[in-house]
């Protein structure tokens, strides 16, 4: 049950302390000021014109004094300091069961008191207030406090993004009804109008029934720029299940025929055709009750080449290594040399045959990870002689004479921040500081489309697992949904209060998750364009996101060096994994959902026992009102692998559960 502070806390204000804003009281205030300066004739004239009798004036005398007291408190800078000290002492002397929830009020009150002092041009007092109480705030607010401390003049309040966030949005404090009653009683007894005004105008209390939360529960979800997410933010239903896979038997027969032809060519005697029935392909997938309707999100029709890719993926999964705490994955590490501080991002294609890297010098480089080199399409005259109906047309149109191990894509004129392969490996997306997203053809090896949706750098781009759609996140505080055949974005997701640093598609392509410098993770519905989840708990910028294979768990990590796991069914934080000593840039789940791998700037790869973690969670039996957050990193850490002075920028599990790692070597001289 959510309640706004405005209707809930107003009754605690004594009638004698209400700010008089009616006409009669205003006239009485004016009359008292005129009499104070012996302007009696003017006062009498005003009384006659306003038809104000002496009895009415005397009746409003109490309201007049109250109004002048309010004016005096707003004009006396020492009132702010005294009010904050009183509130702080009240929090410290409260019972332990309520103390931690009451402490959530201190930071927003501190911020708005400081802003009021600056707005009233009490610069010296504001600086003193900041130095005295700023260091007392929680560590995860210190970066914002440093930005606030720069603002010392009233003129500087305008056009400041951080100040605008605080002024235009209420700070959300989640609090039990008993704790709120205790706070209301304190405010009523002290009658400090400065504090009352700030609480009423700038705080929103998300009230719940039950026992007050302890410090561990509060700290787990604290850290958001404007407080926690309300329960109302996470009430919408989310279809986190996976879509039903299409029938692949026909495409499987084609793949098997191709394999038979290759075997016949290699062998002197033709072999007898084997039975084409494959239990992996003939097995019918169950309908997931949590999956979205098939027609909810218009997805592209599967082409024959797409079906063949899916068949090959299923066949590869039959040779997949089963991972557990005793059988850890083999790791293949690609280290980029002679490129210190020059590599921004990297990604590997789904079949682990190509590696793409985004550079700080505005270039995109692509390598082949297999003996087969990167070939370009033949010329137009040569294509006329090719039968376009043949099954191997994709191989025939490529020119073997153009084969190269690596290719460079030129077109951006700013650092490239992220790259993403399409599922069929024919396209590559890249985003840059130059505010554009470029779509590259990996058959022509040239840019075919340049998308521009904002006038700010684009930090991340991701292809949907179904192709056709892609998502971007930008410095303009928004994320966008695009389609490859549209120059303009299809959806604009607006709601973050700072840069949107990363984005990720849900496995069913119906949702997009975003992580921001406002320290929140949000989930957006691609169909409606609405925000369906708001999750707080990070203490720094969020740099990477990853959905589990089954679609229910979302992992996020960033500058606070922690990995947080969210249950998007309810929008709750369920696990916090600690262990890294540097910002975490990349994460990935193994193909069989048994291991979570994380890579960090601390030159380490950590493997976490995700299957054991799920067993301990018991998601179906969890308390959805106040879930307990598991915070025991060492319990689930299987092993940590170190690199040689090489920050990890990308991790990837192949279809057979071999883990690929991309690092950028930093020589000691460059540091």
Automatic annotation (TrEMBL):
<feature type="repeat" description="WD">
    <location>
        <begin position="409"/>
        <end position="442"/>
    </location>
</feature>
<feature type="repeat" description="WD">
    <location>
        <begin position="535"/>
        <end position="576"/>
    </location>
</feature>
<keyword id="KW-0677">Repeat</keyword>
<feature type="region of interest" description="Disordered">
    <location>
        <begin position="257"/>
        <end position="297"/>
    </location>
</feature>
<dbReference type="InterPro" id="IPR001680">
    <property type="entry name" value="WD40_rpt"/>
</dbReference>
<keyword id="KW-0539">Nucleus</keyword>
<dbReference type="Pfam" id="PF00400">
    <property type="entry name" value="WD40"/>
</dbReference>
<feature type="repeat" description="WD">
    <location>
        <begin position="577"/>
        <end position="609"/>
    </location>
</feature>
<keyword id="KW-0805">Transcription regulation</keyword>
<feature type="domain" description="TFIID subunit TAF5 NTD2">
    <location>
        <begin position="75"/>
        <end position="203"/>
    </location>
</feature>
<dbReference type="InterPro" id="IPR006594">
    <property type="entry name" value="LisH"/>
</dbReference>
<dbReference type="InterPro" id="IPR037264">
    <property type="entry name" value="TFIID_NTD2_sf"/>
</dbReference>
<dbReference type="InterPro" id="IPR020472">
    <property type="entry name" value="WD40_PAC1"/>
</dbReference>
<dbReference type="GO" id="GO:0016251">
    <property type="term" value="F:RNA polymerase II general transcription initiation factor activity"/>
</dbReference>
<feature type="repeat" description="WD">
    <location>
        <begin position="493"/>
        <end position="534"/>
    </location>
</feature>
<dbReference type="InterPro" id="IPR036322">
    <property type="entry name" value="WD40_repeat_dom_sf"/>
</dbReference>
<keyword id="KW-0853">WD repeat</keyword>
<dbReference type="GO" id="GO:0005669">
    <property type="term" value="C:transcription factor TFIID complex"/>
</dbReference>
<dbReference type="InterPro" id="IPR015943">
    <property type="entry name" value="WD40/YVTN_repeat-like_dom_sf"/>
</dbReference>
<dbReference type="Pfam" id="PF04494">
    <property type="entry name" value="TFIID_NTD2"/>
</dbReference>
<protein>
    <recommendedName>
        <fullName>Transcription initiation factor TFIID subunit 5</fullName>
    </recommendedName>
</protein>
<dbReference type="InterPro" id="IPR007582">
    <property type="entry name" value="TFIID_NTD2"/>
</dbReference>
<dbReference type="GO" id="GO:0006367">
    <property type="term" value="P:transcription initiation at RNA polymerase II promoter"/>
</dbReference>
<comment type="similarity">
    <text>Belongs to the WD repeat TAF5 family.</text>
</comment>
<keyword id="KW-0804">Transcription</keyword>
<feature type="repeat" description="WD">
    <location>
        <begin position="451"/>
        <end position="492"/>
    </location>
</feature>
<dbReference type="InterPro" id="IPR019775">
    <property type="entry name" value="WD40_repeat_CS"/>
</dbReference>
């Amino acid at each position: 049950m959510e309640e706004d502070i405005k209707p809930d806390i107003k009754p605690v204000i004594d009638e004698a302390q209400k700010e008089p804003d009616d006409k009669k009281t205003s006239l009485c205030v004016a009359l008292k000021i005129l009499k104070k300066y012996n302007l009696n004739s003017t006062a009498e004239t005003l009384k006659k014109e306003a038809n104000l009798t002496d009895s009415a004036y005397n009746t409003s005398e109490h309201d007049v004094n109250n109004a002048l007291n309010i004016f005096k408190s707003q004009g006396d800078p020492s009132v702010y300091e005294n009010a904050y000290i009183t509130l702080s002492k009240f929090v410290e002397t409260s019972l332990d069961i309520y103390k931690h929830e009451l402490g959530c009020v201190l930071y927003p009150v501190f911020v708005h008191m400081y802003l009021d002092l600056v707005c009233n041009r009490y610069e010296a007092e504001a600086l003193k207030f900041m130095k005295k109480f700023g260091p007392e705030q929680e560590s995860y607010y210190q970066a914002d406090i440093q930005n606030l401390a720069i603002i010392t003049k009233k003129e500087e309040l305008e056009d400041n993004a951080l100040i605008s966030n605080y002024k235009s949005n209420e700070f959300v404090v989640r609090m039990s009804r008993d704790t709120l009653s205790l706070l209301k009683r304190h405010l009523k007894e002290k009658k400090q109008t400065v504090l009352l005004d700030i609480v009423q105008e700038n705080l929103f209390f998300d009230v719940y029934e039950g026992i007050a939360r302890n410090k561990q529960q509060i700290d787990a979800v604290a850290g958001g720029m404007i407080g926690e997410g309300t329960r109302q933010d996470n009430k919408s239903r989310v279809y986190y299940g996976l879509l039903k896979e299409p029938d692949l038997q026909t495409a499987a027969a084609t793949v098997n025929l191709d394999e038979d032809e290759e075997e016949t060519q290699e062998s002197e005697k033709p072999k007898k055709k084997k039975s084409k029935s494959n239990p992996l392909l003939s097995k019918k997938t169950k309908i997931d009750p949590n999956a979205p309707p098939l027609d909810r999100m218009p997805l592209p029709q599967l082409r024959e080449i797409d079906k063949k890719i899916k068949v090959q993926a299923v066949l590869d999964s039959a040779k997949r290594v089963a991972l557990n705490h005793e059988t850890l994955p083999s790791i293949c590490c690609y280290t980029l040399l002679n490129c210190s501080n020059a590599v921004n991002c990297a990604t590997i294609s789904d079949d682990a045959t190509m590696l793409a890297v985004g550079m700080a010098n505005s270039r995109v480089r692509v390598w082949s990870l297999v003996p087969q080199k990167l070939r370009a399409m033949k010329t137009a005259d040569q294509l006329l002689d090719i039968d376009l109906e043949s099954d191997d047309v994709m191989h025939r149109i490529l020119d073997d004479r153009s084969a190269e191990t690596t290719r460079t894509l030129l077109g951006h004129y700013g650092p490239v921040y992220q790259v993403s392969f399409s599922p069929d490996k024919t396209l590559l997306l890249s985003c840059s500081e130059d505010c554009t997203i470029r779509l590259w053809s990996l058959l022509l090896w040239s840019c075919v489309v340049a998308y521009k949706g904002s006038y700010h750098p684009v930090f991340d781009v991701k292809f949907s697992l179904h192709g056709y759609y892609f998502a971007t996140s930008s410095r303009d505080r928004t994320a966008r949904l695009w389609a490859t055949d549209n120059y303009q974005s299809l959806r604009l997701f607006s709601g973050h209060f700072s840069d949107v640093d990363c984005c990720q598609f849900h496995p069913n392509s119906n949702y997009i998750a975003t992580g921001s410098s406002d320290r929140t993770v949000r989930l957006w519905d691609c169909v409606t364009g609405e925000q369906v989840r708001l999750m707080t708990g990070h203490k720094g910028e969020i740099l990477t996101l990853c959905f589990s294979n089954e679609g229910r768990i979302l992992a996020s990590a960033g500058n606070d060096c922690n990995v947080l796991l969210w249950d998007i069914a309810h929008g709750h934080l369920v696990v916090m994994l600690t262990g890294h000593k540097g910002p975490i840039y990349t994460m990935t789940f193994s193909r069989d959902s048994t291991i979570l791998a994380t890579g960090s700037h601390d030159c380490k790869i950590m493997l976490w026992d995700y299957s054991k973690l799920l067993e301990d969670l018991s998601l179906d039996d969890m308390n959805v009102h106040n879930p307990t957050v598991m915070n025991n990193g060492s319990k689930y850490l299987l092993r940590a692998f170190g690199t040689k002075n090489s920050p990890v920028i990308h991790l990837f599990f192949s279809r057979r559960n071999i883990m690929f790692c991309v690092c950028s070597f930093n020589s000691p001289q460059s540091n």
